[in-house]
């Protein structure tokens, strides 16, 4: 039986936290008796967690986990998120045709509940039938929840094994290990699976890093169970044996205390002379703190925000009400609303509130030269605007002086910000470029090349698409499903986040809620992108400066 799992990360960055406090929880999903969709092996289920929006009632995907060859009972997927107790949840399962790419193929069923239902069930464990396929029993799903501890350490460890049992008829074994954390109700939840080492009884597995809260949720004496398997192609992996340990024991590092006998209880009962099914040895163990976005900000890292606005003719004549750049005296246009929603959050992390603001795709006075990188304030020496209001003022002024033209080229503004980011790669500064555009990109190859180069630098790119155009190219640049590449070279990190503005137009006309949702979704990936840069460069945050204390005054008394 194959039992696989990965930990889902929980973002520390919630730019528009609501009034009702949200709880960070791990939701464990156990599937039993799933439908088999694969002909020669078990199903390859993809588990997706959705949460329903409060004001829009739309379902939004918050976490996805794929598990290969699992239709048997007790298969787990851990999904971590920040949720409110009354948050409506949906868990959907699909069989995937290509597990590596998570390409959807067959729907396996779904169920609906709230976090409160899970927490309120005995031992916070809720069992519900899967449904959604007429005339079919889709199996059951068991949902349990545990509040996440505040432990932010990461443990990195490496193991080897010696003289494991031989399980394959024509060869040795293909061993891998599965780690389980014990739960408060006595059950176990998968928290890590090693890679498979082929054709050996003495494997050395690669070192792996795991959050300490995944192993024990901050309880250093909580039991950790480790099972050793021989991998089989059809998913019916052979059980070799198991052992137990704890975080406190592992933290001793390489020693005689961390050599474990792998025991197969069935063999032990049957064979009088049974000793063990091999041994597993801890080779190394180190612990580092998991730093958050706010740790770096508190330590002095500066966020540099740049905005680039699309001035191509496809936006329409700004003097006409049909134009996306139309200046309605009673209501902001889509460009202004997107800029204000995102910019007002980011500006809080910028100490001087001075932001470069660029335009692209326009003819400039006096000679009609087409530019894809011009300052909105008209000052090439100093393109900085004072706060978001300063950018809006420069944007309105530019609409009166430049002629909308084309084409829609992104590469110049991406390279513009990249030049500044390339000069400061020590973690003291991070650059965010907001591109607001209406149309299909004209320089796709050049933009891809610019993004692949920029992925090595301390910068992120947010693209907000306004209007009703098709934004397929923007989705490709986003790189969430397939990492962007140029000339056969993959981007080192995913640094692009794209959202279509039309998805955030509130039907009730409540633009405050719409813009709050836009800001939250647009900025959702920034902390992860920021942390990924710092981690790959080995940059740690500086200590926070001590809080200011006013000088003490001595009270003088006269006798």
TrEMBL record:
Q: Name one Pfam family in it.
A: Copine
Start and end residues of each C2 domain: 122-260
Please indicate which superkingdom the organism of origin belongs to: Eukaryota
Repeat among keywords: yes
User: Which residue intervals define the domain VWFA in the entry?
Assistant: 304-478
Region Disordered: start-end pairs: 537-559
| Record's keyword terms, sorted | Repeat
> Which SUPFAM superfamilies does this entry report, sorted A to Z?
C2 domain (Calcium/lipid-binding domain, CaLB), vWA-like
| Family membership | Belongs to the copine family.
PANTHER family xrefs = COPINE, COPINE-5
* Record-given protein name: CPNE5 protein
Lineage at the top is:
Eukaryota, Metazoa, Chordata, Craniata, Vertebrata
């Amino acid at each position: 039986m194959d039992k696989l799992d990965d930990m889902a990360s929980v973002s520390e960055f919630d730019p528009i936290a609501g009034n009702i406090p949200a709880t960070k929880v791990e939701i464990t999903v156990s599937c039993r008796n799933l439908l088999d969709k694969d002909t020669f092996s078990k199903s390859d289920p993809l588990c997706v967690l959705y949460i329903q929006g409060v004001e829009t009632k739309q379902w939004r995907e918050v976490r996805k986990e794929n598990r290969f060859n699992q239709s048997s009972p007790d298969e787990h997927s851990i999904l971590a998120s920040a949720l409110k107790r009354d948050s409506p949840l949906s868990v959907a399962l699909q069989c995937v045709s290509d597990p590596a790419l998570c390409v959807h193929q067959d729907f396996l069923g779904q169920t609906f509940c709230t976090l409160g239902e899970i927490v309120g069930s005995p031992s916070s464990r809720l069992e519900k039938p899967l449904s959604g396929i007429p005339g079919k029993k889709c199996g059951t799903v068991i949902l349990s929840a545990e509040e996440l501890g505040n432990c932010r350490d990461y443990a990195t460890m490496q193991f080897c094994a010696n003289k494991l049992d031989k399980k394959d008829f024509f060869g040795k074994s293909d061993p891998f290990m599965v780690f389980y954390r014990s739960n408060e109700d006595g059950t176990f939840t998968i928290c890590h699976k090693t890679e498979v080492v082929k054709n050996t009884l003495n494997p050395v597995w690669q070192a792996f890093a795991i959050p300490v809260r995944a192993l024990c949720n901050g309880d250093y004496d909580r039991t950790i169970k480790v099972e050793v398997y021989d991998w089989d192609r059809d998913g019916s992996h052979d059980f070799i044996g198991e052992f137990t340990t704890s975080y406190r024991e592992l933290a001793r590092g390489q020693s005689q205390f961390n050599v474990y006998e792998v025991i197969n209880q069935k063999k032990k009962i049957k064979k009088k002379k049974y000793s063990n099914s091999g041994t597993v040895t801890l080779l190394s163990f180190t612990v580092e703190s998991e730093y958050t976005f706010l740790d770096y900000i508190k330590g002095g890292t500066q966020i540099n925000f740049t905005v680039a606005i699309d001035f191509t003719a496809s936006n329409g004549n700004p003097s006409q009400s049909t134009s996306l750049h139309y200046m309605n005296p009673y209501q902001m246009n889509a460009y202004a609303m997107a800029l204000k929603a995102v910019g007002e959050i980011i500006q809080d992390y910028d100490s001087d509130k001075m932001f470069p603001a660029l335009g692209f795709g326009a003819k400039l006075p006096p000679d009609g030269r087409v530019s894809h990188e011009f300052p909105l304030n008209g000052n090439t020496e100093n393109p900085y605007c004072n706060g978001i209001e300063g950018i809006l003022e420069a944007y309105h002024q530019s609409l009166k002086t430049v002629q909308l033209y084309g084409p829609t080229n992104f590469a110049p503004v991406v390279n513009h910000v990249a030049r500044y980011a390339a000069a400061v790669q020590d973690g003291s500064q991070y650059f965010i470029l907001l591109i607001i555009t209406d149309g299909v990109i004209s320089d796709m190859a050049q933009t891809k090349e610019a993004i692949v180069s920029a992925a090595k630098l301390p910068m992120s790119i947010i693209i907000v698409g306004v209007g009703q155009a098709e934004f397929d190219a923007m989705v490709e640049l986003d790189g969430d499903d397939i990492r962007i590449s140029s000339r056969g070279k993959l981007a080192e990190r995913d640094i692009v986040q794209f959202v279509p503005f039309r998805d955030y137009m509130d039907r009730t006309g409540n633009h405050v809620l719409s813009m709050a949702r836009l800001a939250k979704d647009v900025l959702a990936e920034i902390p992860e992108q920021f942390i990924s840069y710092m981690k790959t460069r080995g940059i740690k945050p500086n200590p926070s400066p001590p809080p200011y204390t006013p000088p003490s005054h001595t009270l003088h008394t006269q006798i």
